[in-house]
Amino acid sequence: MGIKGLQGFVATVCPDVCRMVDLREIAEKHRINHPDFPPVIVVDAMSCVRYWYTPESWVCGGQWREYLAILEDFIKAFMAAGIKLVFYFDGVVEEKKRDEWIKRRFQNTKEIARIFQFIKTHRKQPGRGMFVVPSALPTFTRFALKSLGQKTVCTLQEADFEVAAYGLEHNCIGILGQDSDYLIYNTCPYFSIEKLRLDRLVTLMYSREHLCRALGLSLTHLPLLACLLGNDVVPERLLEGFWHKCLVTSPHKNNSYSRRANVILAVANYISKVPCSYSSLKHLKEMLPLGSDMTLLYRGVQSYLLPGQQSPWIPPNVTNCQTFSLQEQTTMCQDKEILQVAKEQHIRSENYTIFNILSSGETECSNSLEDECDTEIPGQALIYRPARQHIYSVLLESGKGGACPLVKEWFVYFGNPLQQPELIQPVQPSVPGGTPNLKTLWFAKGPDVEKQRYSTFLACFHLQDGMEELQALEAPVAAFCCLLAYLMMQVSSLSLEDLNAFVAVILCLKGKSAAQLAGLQLAQVDSRAVHLGAVFVRGLTTLLLANSACGFPFRMDDLMPWEMFDGKLFQEKYRQSHRGCSLEELLEGNESLYAPFHNLKSFICKACTVKKRTIQSRPRGDGFITGTQQREFNPRFQQTHRSSFVPPYHNQMRGFLWRNPQPQGKKH
């Protein structure tokens, strides 16, 4: 999260703290001084994704091939300068950050509602001022960088700590990111991703030493400054009274500065007069309303101490509590071998989310670009929940008898107050011959096991009967069919026109370059297609989860969005399909796609028929039909939010059938 207002303070009050630097020159100096060690920059990827995503279109579900090309260019620019990059991604949301995570989710929900209102009013994407990253962008960025040959690390604790620790331990030339916490950690230099000019490899470098000089402090003071200004450990609400006292006695008050700038100067002035000792911190605690938790300040200061570092504010006999230990946790999975493999794959960014489930039994999903006013499409969190319940069952082996533990989910969707996690019951999938145990799925070898992996994966999406047909397809197309068939089964409002649009996308995407897709111009943007694009892309992360749990029947690279989806192309196909265009127009005059189109469609319709789901035609023309009922009039969303979700699959999904009744129309 960083320290609120600190970077703004630096820019306005003490601009000498940052200066433009040439990364090539810094790398060259490093090579002269350390000829045996190539220059390395450690990248806080989570704070970079919004700066990396520069395709013009961002609301339609993601311009994934364009984005992949941008990441490739980014890497090449550093490689040309002989600079190695190491990318770090947040692998967990720590308990201490949960309240802040929830607060941001509600903030994002409001931003997304404004975006949909704009699209419905103007039929186009809002300006960059309203930008939010496409759904699941950080997840797929991680796999994109890995596929481009980069060292990619998924963390076991807060990413900024691991980034700072890696930078210090490996003598990196700097950290690239956008988080003021890097001004506090005593580690390698901090470079700004926001100010980076990739063509010249120049950016702003922030100097901790210059910040200390401007504030009259030393480096050892910075962790205490961060805590007394409010951070992830010490909440700002406890500090208001303390700030007021500091402001009253501060000689630096300047009416031309913001209140926050004056608070920073006043708190720094106070700290500069406090002797650097453990007893001083003891005295300081008495000034703060810390309530029953008198350890907050110690924990706050300690959170900035990297391995091997000590602080005068902390007694020497207190060890650094930041080091992650698997043994300290009570894990959901008692099999040490399984847990160790999951942990190693997690760190190397090879699997998706399963280590969190096996270790802490907790998982989360942030906001998606979903229209909360569209009552016809359930939240993606609810659409994919039955599949997740089967995946949880595979991971936690719920069929073994005895009580199976519930999984805690923090998933954002309309009607979920996020006051507590929802407790989700694993549900056994219907695998022919029974669900294999995890050791078989993960470690056994041979064609029979490969078949078991594939059939278990399909069973998570209720497609175990379609194995032969799917195995005959290219892997990305098979995965696409699996997801789309599941989606059509779950969401009764999806029409034949929606199905046609999705199938046309994967077929027409195949021969298109990033440049061709970038050049595609949309006459208008449809809000329902925006919503469906986000739901589909979130579905791809559910495929990643199932693939990780079932022992990788697919290569992860075959489940990536750039293999099967493009936001603008989907908007175009959606509009064509709902206008009732010819097959020739929909498939861009490519006759060789006619047979695959009918075959894929036929498979999906057949899978739906088995589940007694008939896909009907509901053309929407060029009009924006986004659900005429508002959610507040819908009694289903007036129910008290429940903390557990236990009924089996067929009962859960009955709730989705209340949606607007299907009009009579032609059937597939």
UniProtKB/TrEMBL annotation:
InterPro entries: Coact_PPARg, PIN-like_dom_sf. Keywords: Activator, Differentiation, Nucleus, Transcription, Transcription regulation. One of its GO terms (cellular component) is nucleus. Transmembrane segments: none annotated. One of its GO terms (biological process) is fat cell differentiation. It is found in: Nucleus. Interacts with ESR1 and RXRA. Interacts with PPARG; in a ligand-independent manner. Functions as a transactivator of PPARG and ESR1. Functions in adipogenesis through PPARG activation. Belongs to the constitutive coactivator of PPAR-gamma family. This is Constitutive coactivator of peroxisome proliferator-activated receptor gamma. It comes from Uria aalge (Common mure).
